[in-house]
Structures are given as C-alpha cells and as structure tokens.
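To illustrate the input format used throughout this study, we show a single complete record. The first block contains the structure-token representation of the backbone; no residue identities are included at this stage. The design step must infer an amino acid for every position from geometry alone.
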C-alpha cells in the first residue's frame, strides 16, 4: 500500500469528484492521500472531504497564484482540525509578477505553520533560490518541509538535504526528458523522498494524455525503484515511513 502525499481531488478539472473519491476509497493499494488546498475555499472543501473519508487527510494553504483577496487570518482559523496535516501548498511562482505580495503570503503562512507545529508544502516555480533565501533571512519552517514536484537543481537540493527537508517526486520523473530529475532522485537520501501524483495534473507515462488519478502513482513508484535500484516494495515502505515522519498527524 502507498500514500499519495499530494493531490487535488476538488480540482475544477474533475467533473465528478465523488467518483474519484470512491476510486481512492475502494483501491486496496492506496493507504491514504493528502488532499491539498489552493485557497481558503478549496482548503475548506479539503477538510470536509477528509472528515468524511478515512483515507483522506488534507493540507490547507493559499497557493501563490491564488493570493488575491485571500484572508490569512481565516487560514489560521480553519487549521485547527485533526485531519489537517500541513500548511500548503504555499510558495512562490515567478510566472506572475506580483512577487512582493507572494513573499508576504509565504512568510505569514510559514509563521502560522510554525505556530501550529505543522510542516509546510512548498510550491516553487523557478523560485528555489529565492525561497531558500527567505528561509535563511526571514523565516524557516520549524516542523519540516517538502518541495513538491521539485524543479531539479543540485545546489538547491544540497541545501534541502542539509536541512532535512523532503523532496517529492511526481509524474515528471517518468518522462523521457527527465534526466535532471533522475539525477536528483539518485542523490536524495532514502529517508528524504516522497511520492505524489499531483492529481489531476502531471499524468505520468503512459497516461500523459489523460486526467491523472491517484492509482497512477504506481508508475512513479516503479520508476523510482528502477532509479534507486531497490524493490517496489522497498520504495513503498520508505515513502510511507517518510510521509508519516513529516506529516505526523497521519495515522
């Protein structure tokens, strides 16, 4: 059994959320999932889904591309729930030019995570070094951190490893042009990597033309087994242990 450490079951991409929830609940190969919020509304939905489904946990946060008119104080209020295992996804995205505002939201949300003793899930689009600079000069996650869908850079990776932060691998690791990601996977210690689907996005090979499902996590696990030269069962064991070590509220 495997844990999908990052997915978005309440995405607008999905026509029938109930169908996807049922697929996960009925899949004997899935131990649990972390359903990740993008703003206050989707974070509330993630909490409701987690409360109603034992396999589901959730992260609540304000994604850097969704910060407009979002209330940080409200995020703090909704975080007091047994199924909320992290603050996320939060971070920086350099595809938009409101970077100063993004930085404000990132810093405040890390502070909330530290106050609540929760880890953070980081979204970084061409912003690894800037986020690391914020960690060093403004505020650092005190209860763990994962860079989800990590954009490969060995210098940044070395910093994350030295701080015992986690790297999460998604569908891109299965792509033919994933040479840099494969190099990262080889270098990441076995106690610092997670697996995720980022469902319904980033479908792995051989499903790239389809909406991504949590059941596709097997392709990511298989690829990591090949890269790290360990068994599929060992990848599942390691990533489940790592996920529970980072997200301590997962039972």
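Output of the design step:
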């Amino acid at each position: 059994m495997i844990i999908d450490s990052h997915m978005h079951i309440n995405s607008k991409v999905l026509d029938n959320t109930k169908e996807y929830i049922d697929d996960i609940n009925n899949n004997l190969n899935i131990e649990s999932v972390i359903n990740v919020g993008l703003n206050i509304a989707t974070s509330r939905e993630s909490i409701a889904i987690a409360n109603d489904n034992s396999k589901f946990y959730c992260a609540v946060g304000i994604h850097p591309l969704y910060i407009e008119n979002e209330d940080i104080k409200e995020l703090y209020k909704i975080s007091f729930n047994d199924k909320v295992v992290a603050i996320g996804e939060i971070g920086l995205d350099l595809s938009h030019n409101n970077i100063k505002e993004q930085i404000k939201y990132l810093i405040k949300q890390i502070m909330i995570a530290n106050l609540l003793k929760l880890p953070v899930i980081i979204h970084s689009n061409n912003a690894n070094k800037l986020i690391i600079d914020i960690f060093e000069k403004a505020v650092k996650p005190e209860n763990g951190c994962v860079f989800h869908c990590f954009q490969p850079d060995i210098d940044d990776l070395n910093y994350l490893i030295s701080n015992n932060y986690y790297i999460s691998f998604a569908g891109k690791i299965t792509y033919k042009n994933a040479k840099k990601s494969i190099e990262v996977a080889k270098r990441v210690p076995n106690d610092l990597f997670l697996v995720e689907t980022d469902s319904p996005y980033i479908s792995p090979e051989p499903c790239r033309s389809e909406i991504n499902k949590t059941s596709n996590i097997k392709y990511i696990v298989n690829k990591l087994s090949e890269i790290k030269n360990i068994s599929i069962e060992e990848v599942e064991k390691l990533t489940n242990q790592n996920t529970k070590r980072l997200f301590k509220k997962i039972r």
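Structural context for interpreting the output: The chain has a mean pLDDT of 95. The chain has one domain: 2-246.
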